[in-house]
Structures are given as structure tokens and as C-alpha cells.
Design a protein that fits this description.
Helix 6 links the parallel strand 3 and strand 4. The strands form three sheets. The chain has a four-stranded mixed β-sheet, covered by helices on one side. The protein has 16 helices and eleven strands. The two termini are about 35 Å apart. Helices cover about 45% and strands about 15% of the residues. Bound molecules: ligand V47 and iron/sulfur cluster.
Length: about 375
């Protein structure tokens, strides 16, 4: 009996047996199945199944990329309760807004480095608008045409397009033409209105978020999707969230990666809520892998999760650990993430992946292989 068979043999629960049979027979699990997994299954059970699916799809491959972040501003017109930024609108003296020149300076600081992607994400500043960002996109592309620009959450885009009085399609076309290559997954939070109105009432709703991604896919752009979990949502809300994504993915096929984001509770309007346990976090990764059968990749965002738990997640359905983020991404450090100044170089990332016996592959944003590091040995590779 292999590891998977022995774990499945341990359960006598008829529901769980039926779900595992579906997965082993490559059948889609239902909404109710997803909820049952959260309610009844042990971590070992969902983990073994998720690892089976992960290895069927990707073997031991674990992807990472070389990217850097630009946060144009931390000032935001919205007031999501879980966000440590939202207070800054009231405390403007703590806020920053970068000019195009300053952002180009950041881009130029990577001129001699082999990065393949810039991830642009920030608050929704009341003054920053579509023409400003179109100019930024054009300047980045003119300076370094091969750099993939993954930028602006659906929340930022929705605000910019409404302010510029352009349709979603028009706005995305203009952005794409100016150099925007793909959309990051932020702003999704929890789609269900029961939860959304309590945690982020004033920003784009589920339909708006999904419509922006759908339109981007129709224009040939890829995107990611996140889910902020571990606060006031119930299991049903998590599955509802994934279900809406699975349905859209059936239609467009434009999503690359699903990124569950663990809620961190430092210094925000939801600090009274305890953070989820590592066991719960791993269950979320595993059940995401099982539910989102049409998503190619599940990503653990290591600056939020910490390095050890990112390693652990590679046995629970995750096959991507983001990139060699090399900056001070304040949205996470301010919310209490493990990593205050997240940065890992390639050697450290490769070591982290090899330590758990997976195969490190550097990818570009669209998952084209750049370098297979399986046989590359670093002399001084140590990780604490
Ligand atoms: O949507 C804000 C999250 C997201 C907190 O597409 C918090 O590759 C936890 O979407 N606790 C933005 N999370 C970041 C994002 C992202 C990150 C990495 C990769 C990609 C990608 C996208 O940050 C927001 C929100 O869900 N966030 N505050 C908090 N207290
Ligand atoms: Fe603004 Fe995003 Fe923070 Fe919400 S999560 S307050 S939209 S920066």
C-alpha cells in the first residue's frame, strides 16, 4: 500500500470515501463535497489527496520567479477592515505617493539584474488616475520591453476606469496597449456579499471583480486570483469563492494561479480576530488544489506565510512559491507577516525548495521555464 492508499484506508466515513473516489477517478468535486472536506476531513486526508493531484499535474516541480514590486502609493480611498493601509488616508502624514520618475528609478535599479517581472500594486489614491498609469506603463516598456508587467488589482482598475469614464473593455485595452501584460490576483478577498459587506464594503463587488478578469482574459491577458481567508468567513464562503472562480475559469481559461492569503491581524480593524492555525492554512491550500481542478497552479505567497510554512505547503497541493521579491512590501509587513522585509535570492529559494525534495524551476510570469535548478549546486547554500 502506498502512502495515499494507507491514508485513505483509514477513513470509514462514506462521504469522504466517495469524495476521494471522485478525485482518484479525475472527476470534479461538488460544492457540498468541498464543504464536507473542510468540516470532516483530517489534514492528513486532504493533504494526501492534494499531493496526489499536485504530483499528477506537476510531479515534483516547484516554480518560482524573479520579480520585484512597486507600490505607487499606500494612500487609499477605501477602508477595508483587514487592511493596515486604510488608516493612512486619515493619517496622511504617514502616506507616500511615488512620481513616475521615482518609479522609473526603481525599474532602472534592476537594469543589470535578471528579473523577468515587475508586480505593481498599491492603494487606490484619489488623485492617481488612468493617464498617469498609462504613462508609467509606456515608460517601463520603452525602458525594458522584455519585462513582464503584472499590475493593478481589479480594485485599482475599477476605480481608475470609473474615474476616467471608460468602460472596462476600453480601459483594459488602453492599459494592455500601453504595456500591461497581466493582472495580479488581489482585491478578491471573499466574494460572498454576506462577508464582503463586513470586511470591504466600499470597493468593487464580486461581479465587478470577476468581470474585470473575464474581460482581461477575453483580450488575451492572463491573471491570478486570491482569497483572503481565516477571519470571519465560514467554510461555505470559501467554497463559494472558489466556485465562482472555477466557473469563470471554465469559460475563459485565463487564470494561471490561485493564491490563498492568510489573514494577518496586526494593526488593522480586525485585530481582535485570532489568526488561523498552520493546520487550517494547510487545509485551505489542499482543498483549493482539490476544488480548483481547472487552475493550473496553486501558489503560497511566502512573505505572508513565512519560509517554513511555505516549505510545508509544498506537500499540501502548492506548486509555486512566488518570487525573489526584493523590496519592502509594506502591505504585508504592516499586517504582521512573518517577513518584515521580504527578500530571498535565487540561491535561498532554490535551497528552500530542495530541502523538501522538490524540483526548483525558475519560470516567467506565464510559466515558461527559464532555468531548471535541479542539478545546480550552490557552494554556500544555507538556510536558517
Ligand atoms: O487583496 C491586505 C491582502 C492583497 C491583509 O497575483 C492581506 O501574484 C492578509 O493580491 N492579511 C494584495 N492579507 C496582494 C495580492 C498578491 C500578493 C502576491 C501575489 C499576487 C499575485 C497577488 O493583500 C489584498 C488583500 O487580500 N491583504 N491586508 C492582511 N491583513
Ligand atoms: Fe485599499 Fe487595498 Fe487596503 Fe482595501 S486592501 S484599504 S483597497 S489598499
Amino acid at each position: 500500500m502506498n502512502n495515499l492508499e494507507s491514508i485513505l484506508a483509514l477513513t470509514s466515513d462514506a462521504d469522504l470515501k466517495q469524495i476521494s473516489n471522485k478525485i482518484l477517478n479525475h472527476q470534479r468535486i461538488s460544492f457540498d463535497d468541498g464543504v464536507i472536506l473542510f468540516k470532516k476531513a483530517s489534514l492528513a486526508f486532504v493533504g494526501a489527496l492534494a499531493n496526489y493531484v499536485r504530483e499528477q499535474k506537476h510531479g515534483d516541480i516547484t516554480y518560482f520567479n524573479r520579480n520585484f514590486h512597486i507600490e505607487p502609493t499606500n494612500v487609499c480611498v477605501f477602508s477595508c477592515n483587514f487592511c493596515s493601509y486604510s488608516r493612512l488616508y486619515a493619517h496622511r502624514e504617514e502616506g507616500w505617493e511615488l512620481s513616475i520618475e521615482q518609479m522609473m528609478h526603481i525599474v532602472q535599479s534592476y537594469d543589470n539584474k535578471p528579473v523577468t517581472e515587475v508586480h505593481i500594486v498599491g492603494g487606490v489614491h484619489p488623485k492617481l488616475n488612468l493617464p498617469f498609469f498609462l504613462e508609467l506603463l509606456q515608460k517601463i516598456k520603452a525602458h525594458r520591453p522584455s519585462l513582464h508587467i503584472k499590475g493593478f488589482t481589479a480594485v485599482e482598475l475599477d476605480y481608475m476606469f470609473r474615474k476616467a469614464k471608460v468602460s472596462t473593455e476600453e480601459g483594459l485595452k488602453l492599459s494592455h496597449e500601453a504595456g500591461l501584460d497581466s493582472l495580479p490576483g488581489g482585491g478578491a478577498e471573499i466574494f460572498h456579499p454576506e462577508i464582503r459587506k463586513q470586511i470591504c464594503e466600499d470597493k468593487v463587488d464580486a461581479e465587478g471583480w470577476l468581470n474585470i478578469h473575464k474581460t482581461a482574459h477575453q483580450l488575451g491577458m492572463h491573471s491570478n486570483a486570491t482569497m483572503l481567508f481565516g477571519h470571519i468567513e465560514k467554510f461555505e464562503h470559501r467554497i463559494d469563492h472558489m466556485d465562482r472562480l472555477r466557473t469563470l475559469q471554465d469559460e475563459t481559461g485565463g487564470f494561471n494561479t490561485f493564491i490563498p492569503l492568510k489573514f494577518r491581524n496586526k494593526d488593522n480593524g480586525m485585530s481582535n480576530i485570532a489568526e488561523s492555525s498552520v493546520i487550517e492554512d494547510m487545509k485551505v491550500y489542499a482543498i483549493s488544489r482539490l476544488y480548483l481542478d481547472n487552475f493550473p497552479h496553486i501558489k503560497a505567497y511566502w512573505p505572508m506565510l513565512g519560509r517554513n510554512n511555505a516549505q510545508l505547503s509544498l506537500s499540501f497541493g502548492v506548486n509555486d512559491i512566488d518570487g525573489t521579491i526584493d523590496d519592502t512590501t509594506k502591505i504585508y509587513s504592516m499586517a504582521g507577516s512573518e517577513e518584515q522585509n521580504p527578500s530571498m535570492n535565487t540561491e535561498e529559494l532554490v535551497t528552500l525548495i530542495k530541502q523538501v525534495k522538490r524540483k526548483p524551476i525558475e519560470r516567467d510570469t506565464l510559466y515558461n521555464v527559464i532555468t531548471d535548478y535541479s542539478n545546480v549546486e550552490f557552494n554556500s547554500a544555507t538556510l536558517n
